[in-house]
Amino acid sequence: MTWNIRTGGRDRTGPDRRDLVCRVVAAQAPDVLAVQELRGFDRPGVLAGFADRVGMRAHLARSCFGQPVAVLVRPSWSTRSAGPVRRPFHHAAQRVELGTTAGPLTVLSAHLDPYTGLRRRIEAGWLVGAVRRAPGELALLAGDLNTLDPGTDHTDRVARLPAAYRRRHLRRDGRTVDTRAVARLLAAGLVDLWTHAAGPPAPTDAPAPTDAPAPTDAPAPTDTAGWGGAAASGEAGLTAPTRYGGGGEFSGMRLDYLFGGPALAARLRAVRVVRGGDAEYASDHYPVVAELDLDPAPMGEP
């Protein structure tokens, strides 16, 4: 599971959302949690208190310019090594290597630069390097990449943004949507697990389905994302903003990603965006959860 919890779950002038954050995490019960925007979590006791509440072990990467990130792990999973990705990210990136029955799994939690696409492209290159240095074939990159994907037409969404925020997603010509960071990850052979779960697009000449369509006035489900498959497309994949958690700099965007190497993508069972309930208030981003066919290595195994 990856989640940007917005300023450490506590606003300077707004409500304290940390109880909501903990309830969302507890409800999903992930084995591994990549979490971003941990403002104040580098203060004594804050990270440990959060980790204790959600029943996980935490590994934090501090930030020189922005906010820390972390990877949290269930005690049943053995941690072989952990440490920050030592590059000057605007925020940070944390690496944790876990033992699985299929070999070592390297997990990266990252938060890319919010302001410029060029900077995000550079930071994406640093993440590619970290993945390539990982032992074994299993690698998972998770986080808020602040970047739109290159496979979608984002013109209308970007046009709806206020000018100050629109610039963050445009190239220097002021017209072209900047998708270079995600494109760099894809060019390096990483697999976008959301689009991988959706499968290839249907051919344009495919026959119409035989089932009758739902009435146009049918109520929308509470959780519009669902688990993988055909649900993993279109509006279901958008991760920011939430309904009540703020996020005026977003216009309905997919900015939070789970990427894996081919070996990890082959073990993907399902992926979804968590919506509804506390997730609508806890942050301006929705969590993204993937279910993988992986089991922890027995404790004590090298």
Characterise this structure:
Residues 198-234 are annotated as: Disordered. Keywords: Exonuclease, Hydrolase, Nuclease. One of its GO terms (molecular function) is exonuclease activity. The chain has 302 residues and is an alpha+beta fold. The chain has one domain (2-203, 219-292): 4-Layer Sandwich (Deoxyribonuclease I, Chain A), CATH 3.60.10.10. It has helices spanning 18-28, 46-54, 117-132, 155-159, 163-166, 180-187, 193-198, 262-265, 279-282, and strands spanning 2-4, 32-36, 57-61, 69-73, 79-84, 92-100, 103-111, 138-144, 191-192, 256-260, 268-273, 288-292. Helix 3 (117-132) runs parallel beside helix 6. The longest helix has 16 residues, at 117-132. The two termini are 25 Å apart.
The Cα radius of gyration reads 19 Å
The backbone outline, from C-alpha atoms, is: globular
* Major pleated sheet: 6 strands, mixed
- Structural category is alpha+beta
Kindly report the spatial arrangement of strands forming the biggest sheet: 5-6-7-8-10-9
The second-level CATH architecture is: 4-Layer Sandwich
CATH class category label: Alpha Beta
CATH superfamily membership, which one?
A: Endonuclease/exonuclease/phosphatase
Terminal-residue CA separation: 25 Å
Helical stretch tally: 9
- Helix share, percent: 10-25%
| SS strand fraction | 15-25%
Find the count of extended strands (DSSP E, 2+ residues): 12
Task: Give the number of domains.
Answer: 1
Unreliable spans are 206-233
